[in-house]
Amino acid sequence: MLLSLPWLLPAAEPDPVLEKIRAAVMVWRHALPDFVCTQDSTVNHGNRGKGVRLSDSASYELRVVQGRESYFLKRSAGLDLEQLTPVDFPVMGNRGEFASALLLLFDAPSQTRFHRADRETVEGRRLRRYDFSVRQENSRWFVGPGAAFQPAYTGSFWADESDGKVYRLHMEAHRFPRRYAVQDAWLNVSFDTVRIQGEEYLMPVQSDVRTCRDLTDCAHAFMLFTDYRKFTATSQVEFQH
Fold first, then answer.
1. Torsion angle of alpha carbons 182, 109, 119, 159, nearest 10°?
2. For the chain, which terminal residue's Cβ has fewer other Cβ atoms within 10 angstroms, N or C?
3. pLDDT (tens digit, 9 = 90+) per residue, 155-193?
4. CA 158, CA 145: separation in Å to the nearest integer?
């Protein structure tokens, strides 16, 4: 089902709503400033139902500069750090695919197949749902230790038909190599309007990511994004005499 869904085919006629959404995503991509925000994360471990236990909570400063994400640990186990510590997440867990998940769907190399579905009410908004699939050979969603595998995936997004803005995204993948560290993964991202230096932008406000090795070994990360502000870097030039 992941690799080929026969009903997820490009429409024979252009879909004006989908083209409006595509255009809105491209405008968002180019208008997005370099920014920084706070990411508060809580990670649970356990099975897919009962037996879940809290294993980690932390706060990070998340910087997105020229579309690239970088993370700096601010607070861990309830204690503030004396200085920001760079963090490189080796697996999909605390990393929410913050700036890239939605953009990848509309990149030509992904060859995403879209299917227009029903209108649904999401958090008080009447939105149009689109389902999609991306084949494994076109995938650029990196999952697992060292971001070593790019699975085929399916999912849905919910967008406002009037302006093309996407307010929710869901992605999931289930086919991985046997004995690979991840056998099941999904990602949810919710978007809303935030202010960055007086300007309004549609940005992620919460996300959750789940990865499972098997039915009894899952990690589920919940992330909240707050305190958005424009990223500015300062440099000092020293003159030698």
1. 100
2. C
3. 999 999 999 999 999 999 988 988 888 888 989 999 999
4. 30
Q: What are phi and psi of 101, to 5 degrees?
A: -60, -50
The answer to whether residues 120 and 106 touch, using CB atoms and an 8 Å cutoff, is no
Higher-pLDDT residue of 175, 69: 175
Query: Residue 52, Cβ neighbours under 10 Å: how many?
Result: 13
Q: Which whole-number Å values give the CA distances from 48 to 155, 182, 184, 211, 215, in the listed order?
A: 19, 14, 11, 10, 6
Cα gap 219→133, rounded to integer Å? 24
CA distances in angstroms from 222 to 145, 146, 169, 187, 204, listed in the order given: 19, 21, 15, 10, 13
List all residues 6 or more positions away from 183 whose beta carbon is below 8 Å from its beta carbon: 174, 176, 212, 213, 214
pLDDT digits (tens, 9 = 90+) for 212-239: 887 678 888 888 999 999 888 643 434 4
Write out the two tokens for 196: 């960055």
The single residue listed with the structure tokens 């309830």 is 78
Q: How far apart are CA 77 and CA 72, in angstroms?
A: 15
Note the residue count of the chain. 241
- Which range, 7-16, 50-59, 61-70, is most confident? 61-70
Residue 79's identity, in one-letter code, is L
Beta-strand pair 35-46/217-230:
antiparallel
Return the sign of the alpha-carbon dihedral for residues 149, 154, 160, 161: positive
